[in-house]
Specification:
Elements (H helix, E strand, L loop, with lengths): L2 E3 L6 E3 L3 E2 L11 H13 L4 E3 L8 H12 L6 E6 L14 H4 L2 H15 L4 E6 L11 H11 L3 E7 L9 H6 L4 E5 L11 H8 L2 E5 L23 H4 L2 H14 L9 H10 L6 E2 L6 H13 L4 H8 L13
C-alpha cells in the first residue's frame, strides 16, 4: 500500500481507502462478511475508513467502531458525515442552513455518530450534503469550531452532490474546510476544471468517491441488470441511465489491457491524479479488498492509456433519479 498526504492535516493515509456505504444496508450485506473484509483491508495496509450516520442510520458507524477496537495497536483514520436535518439527498439550491445543518442538529448528530462507533473522537467530520450558499450563514462554522475545540473531531470536510463539483469551490477557497469528498472517475472528470485547482491552492484534501461509477466501470453491468426494489440502485439505474451507462462502459472495453480488469483500470486512472488524497471504493467482500488494494502497488497507468481514457469524459447533469 502506498500513502498520500491528506492535505493540510498532514495525515499519511492509504491511497486506497474504504467506503462503507454498502455495509449500512445494501441488499446482500452481511455483518460478519463486512467485518472480515474490513479487517483484511487493515491487514493489507488500508488506514482510511469513510462512513456516515446515513449509512443504515448508524449501522456502518457501529461496524467501524468494532474494527477500531479490534485493532488497538494501529492508527486508523475515521471519517463520518452528519446527515442534513431534512434528510434530503442531494441538497437543492433552495435549502437553507436552517433546513439542513442548524447548530443544534450538528451537535446532536456529532454525538450520535460518536455513540454509534463507541469512540471519543473522529478524525474527520463531514457535512453529507453541501451548498456553497451556506457560507453566508456562519453559524455552522462557529458550531463546528466549538465541537472541534472540545476534541470531538480533528478536521472538517464536505461531501459534494453528484455531478456538481462546482458547488464546493467557494467552500474550498474560504479556507474553512480541510477536505472535500467528490465523485471522480473515468467518466466524471469535471472536478479537474475548478475544484482540484482550488484544493491544490488551499491544501485541501480530496476524497475520490464512486470510482466505479456505481458499478458501471467494473464492466459487469448489462442493459438487463436488475436490483431488488429496496436496493437504491433500482431507482438510480432507471432504463435511461442504465442503458447509457452500459454503452459508455462498453466503449471502454477495447482499451482495457490484456492483463488488467476494467475495475483495476478505473482505480489506477484515479491514482494518476496526484491531487487525489485517497479513493474510497466500496468493498463488501474479501476478493474485492484484495483486488482493489493491490492496485496501489501497481501505480498509475501509462501516459498513453491515461490520455485515451481522458477522451471518455462524460459530463452529466443532475436529474430526479441521480440522487
Amino acid at each position: 500500500m502506498q500513502y498520500r498526504r491528506f492535505g493540510r492535516t498532514g495525515w499519511q493515509v492509504s491511497e486506497i481507502g474504504y467506503g462503507m456505504w454498502g455495509m449500512g444496508g445494501w441488499t446482500g450485506s452481511d455483518d460478519e462478511q463486512s467485518l472480515r473484509s474490513l479487517q483484511l483491508a487493515v491487514d493489507l495496509g488500508c488506514n482510511f475508513f469513510d462512513t456516515a450516520w446515513g449509512y443504515g442510520k448508524g449501522k456502518s458507524e457501529e461496524l467501524l467502531g468494532e474494527l477500531i477496537r479490534a485493532n488497538p495497536d494501529k492508527k486508523l483514520y475515521t471519517a463520518t458525515k452528519i446527515p442534513p436535518k431534512n434528510f434530503e439527498w442531494p441538497s437543492k439550491r433552495e435549502h437553507t442552513l436552517e433546513d439542513t445543518f442548524p447548530p443544534d442538529h450538528i451537535e446532536e448528530y456529532v454525538h450520535k455518530s460518536l455513540e454509534n462507533a463507541g469512540i471519543e473522537a473522529y478524525d474527520l467530520m463531514q457535512f453529507h450534503t453541501w451548498e456553497d450558499s451556506w457560507l453566508e450563514d456562519e453559524r455552522w462554522v462557529h458550531e463546528m469550531r466549538d465541537l472541534q475545540g472540545q476534541g470531538l473531531f480533528r478536521a472538517i470536510g464536505i461531501s459534494i452532490n453528484r455531478w456538481e463539483p462546482w458547488n464546493g469551490v467557494k467552500a474550498v477557497k474560504s479556507g474553512l474546510i480541510d477536505s472535500v469528498q467528490v465523485i471522480y472517475n473515468i467518466f466524471d472528470q469535471n472536478p479537474k476544471d475548478e475544484l482540484f485547482p482550488a484544493c491544490r491552492e488551499q491544501d485541501v484534501a480530496v476524497i475520490a468517491r464512486v470510482p466505479f461509477d456505481e458499478g458501471t466501470l467494473t464492466g459487469k453491468l448489462t442493459k438487463d441488470s436488475t436490483w431488488p426494489e429496496d436496493d437504491w440502485r433500482s431507482t438510480y439505474f432507471v432504463p435511461e441511465n442504465l442503458h447509457s451507462s452500459v454503452e459508455h462502459a462498453d466503449a471502454l472495453k477495447p482499451l482495457v489491457p490484456a492483463e488488467m480488469t476494467m475495475a483495476e483500470m478505473a482505480l489506477r486512472f484515479i491514482l494518476g491524479n496526484p491531487t487525489v488524497s485517497t479513493i474510497i471504493p466500496g468493498m463488501r467482500k474479501t476478493p474485492h479488498v484484495k483486488m482493489n488494494i493491490a492496485t496501489s502497488d501497481k501505480g498509475p497507468l501509462n501516459e498513453k492509456l491515461m490520455q485515451e481514457l481522458e477522451k471518455h469524459r462524460w459530463d452529466r447533469e443532475p436529474t430526479e433519479w441521480s440522487q
